[in-house]
Amino acid sequence: MTIAETQPAAYAVFPLLADASTYEPCQWDLLAEPEKRAYWIDLFRGHFPKLLAEAMRDAEAAGLDLADAQQRADAARGQFERHLDEITHQPDSHSPLNILTICLERERVLRRTGFDDPYRLAKQVENESALKLLPRVLAELDRMPPAQLQSRIIHGVFAGNIFDLGATQTQAMFTDQRVDFYATLDKLRPRPWFIDDMAAWMRRLMSHAHRAAVLFVDNAGPDVVLGMIPLARELLRRGTDVILTSNSSPSLNDVTHVELERLVDQIAQIDEPFRRAIDEDRVELVPSGNGAPLIDLRRVSGKLAEAVQRRGVDLVVLEGMGRAVETNYTARMTCDCLKLAMIKDRGVAEGLGAKLYDLVMRFHSPDMGD
After folding, report:
1. What is the C-alpha separation between 298 and 328, in angstroms, rounded?
2. Can you say whether the dihedral through the CA atoms of 147, 148, 150, 155 is positive or negative?
3. In sequence order, what are the residues at sequence separation of 6 or more whose Cβ sits closer than 8 angstroms to the Cβ of residue 340?
4. Paired strand residues for 287
5. What is the tally of helices (H) and strands (E) in the chain?
6. Which three-class secondary structure state does DSSP give residue 3?
7. What are the contacts of 109-115 at 24+ separation with CB within 8 A?
8. Distance between CA atoms of 6 and 287, rounded to whole angstroms?
9. How many CA atoms lie within 13 A of 28 on its CB side?
């Protein structure tokens, strides 16, 4: 297994974008849509105190000076509130203005005030819980016939993706300890999904063996461990090399590159086929260069761009609402691209004409003219 450096030496345009000159990461222009702008400003304003409460909990667990931490939290709240006030009253002074730019400003405020990873404890708890369940999940997958297996893997990605502490609805679920992977599997929306390209994906799998895939993973816990690792494992079984790319720096409960290193080491001890693929250098971990729950593919790490070209990647998987819907929903690649997400925010749902908890499985293949 090749482990790339955590911090990117330089940024690069993701080399598989079909047309980087016309690519726009975020489809909603909040300057042009005042109602959407008001919704998102209110959402960020309401969520930030919950984020700071997690930061205080982490500071207490780390034995930090709580008076100092509270002072920094108050400063962070003031700075972010001022930014939200500015884009409320003078939106034209901030261009471009979209969900991604607001996310990036939130991360800058947190870093300036000394809060690097507010959800560290929550991620640790969910990672440990998911790892305990992983052997059962993999054993069940190994007993399934091929057609059922492919469907169940996609269902598993959707069920795992519910661990999202950036979406207000699912954050409340985790606060109340009401999330269970198998219960979520049972409650997933039935097909046809809001976007349902399962048939096209199955046809592609039956007719084509991918050389290498890059998987943009999303959240820690069940999302990456019980959802994306089984998908990666199945691709490896089919002869496809796998690059797992995750955030270079923390943001909400997104899994980071350093955390993914530790998880993969533990998974290799649990699962022999995955360990064998690692030993054969068919699994590579690369930081994406990103530090937000959404991603601009014009600014990925140079390490990721190099790895994608070196491995000859011909399958891109974008997973999670932030990477596959709030950004990159309409993005096209020069190769096969699979986008998977559960819609966990009312504003996102309304913007798409969907419903809360609708499912997106969007597949495009230039070879299939689709």
Report:
1. 11
2. positive
3. 154, 157, 158, 161, 317, 318, 319, 320, 324, 360, 361, 362
4. 246
5. 15, 10
6. strand
7. 109/76, 109/79, 109/80, 109/83, 110/51, 110/55, 110/76, 112/76, 112/79, 113/72, 113/73, 113/75, 113/76, 113/79, 114/72, 115/52, 115/55, 115/72, 115/73, 115/76
8. 6
9. 25
Pair 122, 165: CB distance under 8 Å: yes
- φ and ψ at residue 334, rounded to 5 degrees: -80, -5
Q: Which residue, 28, 365, 30, is CA-closest to 203?
A: 365
Q: How far is CA 282 from the centre of its chain?
A: 22
> What structural domains does the chain harbor?
2-23+143-368 (3.40.50.10880)
CA-based radius of gyration for the chain:
20
Give the amino acid at 338. L
pTM: 0.94
* pLDDT tens, residue order, the chain (370 aa): 544 444 445 899 999 999 999 999 998 899 999 999 999 999 999 999 999 999 999 999 999 999 999 999 999 999 999 999 999 999 999 999 999 999 999 999 999 999 999 999 999 999 999 999 999 999 999 999 988 999 999 999 999 998 776 555 555 554 555 568 999 999 999 999 999 999 999 999 999 999 999 999 999 999 999 999 999 999 999 999 999 999 999 999 999 999 999 999 999 999 999 999 999 999 999 999 999 999 999 999 999 999 999 999 999 999 999 999 999 999 999 999 999 999 999 999 999 999 999 999 999 999 876 4
Q: Which of the 8 DSSP states describes residue 357?
A: T
Secondary structure (DSSP) of 39-77: HHHHHHHHHHHHHHHHHHHHHHHTT--HHHHHHHHHHHH
